[in-house]
Design a protein that fits this description.
There is one protein chain. With 243 residues, the chain is of the alpha/beta class. It has one domain: Spore Coat Polysaccharide Biosynthesis Protein SpsA, Chain A (Alpha-Beta Complex). It contains 8 helices and 9 strands. The strands form 2 sheets. Strands 3-2-1-4-7-5-8 form a 7-stranded mixed sheet, sandwiched between helices. Strands 6-9 form a two-stranded parallel sheet. The longest helix is centred in the middle third of the chain and has 18 residues. The two termini are 25 Å apart.
Length: 243
């Protein structure tokens, strides 16, 4: 079973070494058919140069794709998806570059991929999961936002906005994603809803960036909320096909 781990990066020279070294360490616990695909989204610092060093050290595991200009989180993921589809991977796994989605959970994803689930989500809101180091107001917004999204989407998932997930490329190849920002996560859920026959969740603990890693590129603002909400509302009228 072939899978690729897709990670977008943009101006992350502070975390490249620790992140890639840690992820590759956990990846070695999985079969060689599981690759790490890093999409450098037009970084202006030393991110790309540092990634090139790691690719030279482990060309069998690490694949680097570079954008000439910064196109956005969603665009970087679309590049990773296209690579996964074109190269015959059965699953694309998406995670952040700063270890807040820790790679120790990749074995849990792999076990569920072997069972053939279409859509697998890491969840902060099921037994055995949690959130550490995140301000209380952000935890509150996320918790209530996901409760509303779950109700509107009508899916057996507790953490819809989280981007740590694995999706069959056979499904991704049938949808056309357009979002360039973080709303791509909800757009993907919305468009894939009629195609997905099975969902699974993995409990995980989300952590926050340390002070030395720099600020996250995710912003909590009205534009982000609206981009997320529009797909949840549209999902109300999206019926799943009868199996």
């Amino acid at each position: 079973m072939r899978a690729c781990i897709v990670i977008p990066m943009y101006n992350e020279e502070r975390i490249v070494r620790q992140s890639i070294k840690t992820i590759l360490g956990y990846l070695k616990q999985l079969p060689l058919e599981v690759k790490l695909v890093v999409v450098d989204d037009g970084s202006q610092d030393r991110t790309r140069a540092l990634l090139e060093e790691y690719r030279a050290e482990d060309p069998g595991r690490l694949i680097l794709i570079s954008h000439q200009h910064n196109l956005g989180y969603g665009a970087a993921l679309r590049t990773g998806i296209a690579f996964a589809i074109q190269n015959g991977f059965e699953y694309a796994v998406f995670m952040d570059s700063d270890l807040t989605n820790h790679p120790k959970y990749l074995t849990n994803f792999y076990d569920l991929m072997l069972k053939g689930y279409d859509y697998i989500k890491a969840s902060r809101y099921i037994p055995g999961a949690g959130v550490l180091g995140v301000p209380w107001h952000r935890k509150l917004i996320s918790s209530w936002g996901n409760r509303a999204a779950r109700l509107l989407f009508g899916l057996p998932l507790h953490d819809l906005t989280n981007g740590f997930r694995a999706v069959k490329t056979a499904i991704l190849s049938k949808i056309e994603l357009t979002e360039n920002g973080f709303a791509l996560i909800l757009e993907e859920l919305f468009l894939s809803k009629p195609l997905v026959r099975s969902y699974a969740e993995i409990p995980y603990v989300l952590t926050s960036r340390t002070e030395g890693q720099g600020k996250t590129h995710f912003t909590y603002d009205f534009k982000t909320y609206f981009a997320y909400l529009k797909y949840a509302i549209r999902s109300l009228g999206k019926r799943r096909p009868v199996v």
